[in-house]
Design brief:
There is one protein chain. This protein is of the alpha+beta class. It is 39% helix and 11% strand. The protein has helices spanning 3-25, 35-44, 111-131; strands spanning 51-55, 61-64, 100-102, 105-107. The strands form 2 sheets. The protein has a two-stranded antiparallel sheet. The chain has a two-stranded antiparallel ribbon with strand order 3-4. Helix 1 runs antiparallel to helix 3.
Length: 138
């Protein structure tokens, strides 16, 4: 696959990816209170081609994009849903759940650990499957 094909596919979906990352950052998910964030993920995953979506009693989420080649190892994306307490609001130069874009960054509580990465990982599976439909993705 030419790199230009990948770059174009990423560009075509970048605004959706950023909007989704903002939505995740805007959803508080302190340890033990990740339910609303999990609900958002469960709703979004099928849109990105994920199937076999399961949430256990502890709130852990597993989703698979089925592939066709069992002999090829599947990539695994791993993340956590919670983030640390935002602390004293006066210490923030912007609201912690604002998901403010200060190009090229999205700012907010949990943005770097790990809601931005979570959004990117979810879209990575989607884009990989679009590029290589024969690969096993899970």
């Amino acid at each position: 696959m030419p790199i230009d094909t990948f770059k174009q596919l990423l560009e075509d979906h970048s605004s959706d990816l950023f909007a989704f990352a903002q939505e995740l950052i805007q959803t508080p998910s302190l340890s033990g209170a990740e339910g609303k964030l999990a609900e958002k993920l469960v709703k979004k995953l099928p849109e990105l081609g994920y199937e076999q979506i399961e949430v256990d009693a502890a709130g852990n989420l597993l989703a698979i994009i089925p592939g066709t080649q069992s002999a090829v190892p599947s990539p695994l994306f791993l993340s956590h849903l919670d983030h640390c307490e935002p602390g004293t609001l006066e210490d923030w130069s912007y609201a912690p759940y604002s998901a403010k874009i200060q190009s090229p960054y999205i700012l907010g509580c949990g943005a770097s650990d790990s809601k931005g990465a979570m959004a990117a990982q979810m879209y990575a599976g989607y884009l990989l499957k679009k590029l290589y439909p024969e690969l096993p993705i899970s």
